[in-house]
Design goal:
Structural class: alpha+beta
Helix content: 25-40%
Largest sheet: 6 strands, antiparallel
Radius of gyration: 22 Å
Distance between the termini: 45 Å
């Protein structure tokens, strides 16, 4: 929901002329995106009709441009109230840092709410990821991660219970897993492998994240390793697609 409906969008400057070699809709999307990114969350956008008249484009062209901004999470439609600049999106990079570390770098307060926590036998999949034997005891942690109190991701994390005895008893709400591992076992993440896919949130995860069922989400599988190459944890997280981007760094060989 928009936070401040009293903010009004500034006058949108007209280009000298649309580039005849490019579709007007594409150029309009670029103009609106540039303007939106300069405005604070909660700023009210002009109506489709106003944008269409100002840029001399079809109403459908204006609607498609705004819909593109909505799909990308830059603006939010509020039924009966208009379209507003959305809260800034977060970025998940392919780094070895924890969720808590990433949020603090962005000036946000990380948080967590434990949904379930316990020790159980490793399934074949978990055993493969953690370099264990099927049936070995693992710590399974299921929690909701938040930024400034807003649910951002549902996280399922698995670690060897034999390697980290008593870990389940040490973890609690708002506790950083990596801090616990370092303080009690001297373990640090040296490298991490990520796999990213996209799915629609089911009813269970949508309820935990307080969003509509079917919202697109990033599913990030992550195996973290120590300096010796031994697997520390395997996690699978589902991040809200309306609040998160995934960023990759490519280093040419």
């Amino acid at each position: 929901m928009a936070r401040s409906p009293h903010n009004t969008f500034p006058e949108i400057p007209l280009p000298d002329a649309f580039d005849t070699d490019r579709a007007k809709g594409e150029q309009l999307r670029e103009i609106l995106e540039a303007m939106v990114r300069e405005q604070p969350p909660g700023t009210l956008l002009p109506s489709e009709r106003s944008i269409a008249e100002r840029f001399q484009v079809a109403r459908m062209t204006a609607r498609q441009a705004i819909t593109d901004l909505v799909t990308r999470g830059l603006v939010r439609r509020v039924n009966g109230a208009g379209t507003y600049v959305a809260e800034p999106r977060l970025t998940h990079g392919t780094t070895t840092g924890s969720f808590s570390h990433d949020m603090r770098l962005r000036g946000l307060e990380p948080g967590a709410r434990v949904v379930s926590l316990g020790v159980r036998p490793a399934t074949e999949l978990v055993a493969q990821r953690l370099q264990l034997a099927e049936g070995d005891p693992i710590v399974a942690l299921h929690r909701v991660r938040t930024a400034d109190g807003v649910p951002i991701a549902v996280e399922n994390t698995h670690l060897s219970a034999n390697r980290f005895p008593g870990l389940a008893e040490l973890l609690a709400d708002d506790q950083s897993l990596y801090v616990v591992l370092q303080e009690h076992w001297g373990v640090q993440v040296a490298t991490a492998a990520h796999r990213v896919s996209v799915i629609a949130l089911d009813d269970t995860d949508a309820e935990l994240l307080e969003v509509p069922i079917g919202l697109p989400s990033f599913v990030i599988d992550r195996v973290a390793y120590d300096a010796s190459g031994s697997a520390i944890e395997w996690g699978r997280s589902r991040y809200r697609g309306d609040r998160y981007d995934v960023e990759f760094d490519v280093h040419p060989s």
